[in-house]
Amino acid sequence: MGAQNPRFSEPLREDFPLESVERPFVRASLRFATPDDLDAIVALEEAFPVRERWSRDAWFHELEADNRWVQVAECPGASGILGVITVQIIGGVADLNRIIVAPEMRGHGVGAELLRAGIEDANSAEADEMLLEVRHDNRAAHALYARAGFTEIARRTDYYGTGVDAVVLRLELAEEDDDDENQ
């Protein structure tokens, strides 16, 4: 059985569900990002339409902010960064601000590894919930988030442009067991 985080009701890391991964699973190595990763992170943005890309300046501020947890995925034998996740934690709320996987690595489990790490970061910071928004037509992301337990709480009409809605998703993080309160 995978490692159990006391604030998360499901097993983490090894047991994260990957049923919909269509290609061979890649065991990515994750680490916290540094300013030296900025160029590689910005290069991942090239896969998106220009109007949906984050700027170099936006990523610089993500890496520098005190309340951001930015991790990158790498793979032994592969060059460069395979993906990145940034989570902003304020009080009891963790916002998954961005998760990107290199196009050639999509469907290999890298996104699941990054999401798992983001959830662990939120648990480590004792967040009560994680929120995110995703394009309504991003089927792969919706499947990943559903497997992790996220549920839809709202829609933002035309958020990404005419006819492209944002779906706001929420994951309730498990409360720590406190034996003192139960006695």
Automatic annotation (TrEMBL):
SUPFAM superfamilies xrefs: Acyl-CoA N-acyltransferases (Nat)
Domain N-acetyltransferase intervals: 28-174
GO molecular function: acyltransferase activity, transferring groups other than amino-acyl groups
Native source organism of the sequence: Propioniferax innocua
The keyword Transmembrane appears for this protein: no
Extent of the signal sequence: none
Keyword Acyltransferase carried by entry: yes
Cross-referenced PANTHER family: ACETYLTRANSFERASE (PTHR43420), N-ACETYLTRANSFERASE DOMAIN-CONTAINING PROTEIN (PTHR43420:SF12)
Coiled-coil annotated spans: none
The protein, known as: Ribosomal-protein-alanine N-acetyltransferase
Pfam families, alphabetized: Acetyltransf_1
Keywords: Acyltransferase, Transferase
